[in-house]
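Quick illustration, no need to memorize.
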Amino acid sequence: MGAVRSHIGEAEDRFFATVFLGSGLLFVAMLFAVAAGTGSLLAALDRHPRASRHLWDCGRRSRGGRGWA
């Protein structure tokens, strides 16, 4: 983000700076949220290894039910 902002230089307006910073912060927040969700599913799987099918279904529902294929 810093490289893009320094390349724009003085032509950058305040609105663009606000949107750019906000999108970067939102990306980092979503990254932490996904990591927390994935970590909790893996911790539950480690604690209860026989619950793998239930956790797989929970993971599919959490991302809208769309499969890889």
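Residues 10 and 35 are 37 Å apart (CA to CA).
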